[in-house]
Amino acid sequence: MTLSVLQVASEAVPLIKTGGLADVVGALPQAVAPHGIAMTTLLPGYPRVLAAAGKLRTLHKYDDLFGAKARVGAALLEDGLRLLVLDAPELFAREGGPYADAAGHDWPDNWRRFAALGRAAADLATGAGRTKGFDLLHAHDWQAAMAPSFLRYDAAADGMPRPPSVLTIHNIAFQGHYGADVFPALGLPPEAWSIDGVEFHGGISLLKGGLVSCDAITTVSPSYAREIQTAEFGMGLEGVIRARADRVHGILNGIDRRDWHPRHDAALAARFGKQTIARRSANKRAIEKEFALEEGDGPLFVIISRLTWQKGTDVLLECIDHLVGLGGRLAVLGSGDRDLEQGLQAAAARHPGRVGVRIGYDEALSHLLQGGGDAILIPSRFEPCGLTQLYGLAYGCVPIVAATGGLADTVIDANPAALDQGVATGIVFAGLRYDTLAMAITRTVELYRQPARWQQVQRNGMAADFGWSRSGAAYADLYRQLLGEGA
């Protein structure tokens, strides 16, 4: 039996993207389709989304959706994506990004914008307008977390059953916190202002409201599902997660091999596979030219990242002199905290020809870095899943990762036993400090100087299966369990 699922999120490739959330939301419909799941995606009507969607078929209208006129329109994209768009110009037709203005300042009414998204999702899930409703609703992160809350309190108000809901946490650090003054405008009953509702330390948390209201919580890796139940990683919500531990599921993200495959990637100077790995050298030469680095055969480290405390960029800055001193070079693509950007630019000035920095993001260049870099540095303090290391594995760019979240779940450390058994795929270190990261870089350089073992590690990573097939089956199983159909 085919099940109909409505997923709601604030971004999805190929329409709008700020991070890995968009990759997952964009890939999930095709991942679950082979398992009898027909998934439709609801997105906000940002200008880019409306332009890509083309002419919409109106399914539902609102005269007053949190103070704005709105409609829900449907489109079917060329890749088969079933799309619903919440077209509300007052809420979403703005210059800048999905969450912030052109200067990088969060829109002050984000609570209203994404509460409206949640309200529309709950209405559509239950058959509003010219829709038939859906068997299940799947919400992603705090921006969509009001949808499970509305379903819960609507059911309590009228006694009518509602479809079950799933809420996926992509990063628990972002929780949608707002002041208590916002609560009356959310349209929730008074009992929602409670420890079992959206109230959180005297204000509201949209994510917390969804977590206590949904029927199942998923995270994007098994390790992260365990970590967020601890004070170190739970960001204040660990008690909420522990109280619902029997409903928490860790399902590892996958990568879309249609977009990320070194044998077919048009962004590479030279395409390659496991048996033609020597062709990567042409991509390495292209990176050296792009970043004004000295040409050479020594290890080329790369970084593709937001430049933030979470990503460990501050500790990485301390290790750059050590990396260069070992004969390594470094190419950085990313943006983030201004002080960290300036620190990297200072390192490039200190080591001309050895360190190159590009502030910003370039999708094609990120593919080239994976296809030509020898090793990719990912020293995150916490990482719910991470896609960067999965791309690195697929492209033979050996990941150097901290032992946290999805990084720990996906990379096998090149310790002596793993090397002897031929299963190592990268370098894993515990505890982010100068000494642990510096030692990981040293180990990488030592391994690089053993060409046979290094290429075996590369090929192991390229042979690993981190596509969406297993994860898609896991989500489909969870949906059917919630609907009482069994695994």
TrEMBL record:
ADP-alpha-D-glucose binds at residue 17. Keywords: Glycogen biosynthesis, Glycosyltransferase, Transferase. Its EC number is 2.4.1.21. GO terms for biological process: glycogen biosynthetic process. It catalyses: [(1->4)-alpha-D-glucosyl](n) + ADP-alpha-D-glucose = [(1->4)-alpha-D-glucosyl](n+1) + ADP + H(+). Residues 289-456 form the Glycosyl transferase family domain. Gene3D superfamilies: Glycogen Phosphorylase B (3.40.50.2000). Belongs to the glycosyltransferase 1 family. Bacterial/plant glycogen synthase subfamily. HAMAP family: Glycogen_synth. This is Glycogen synthase.
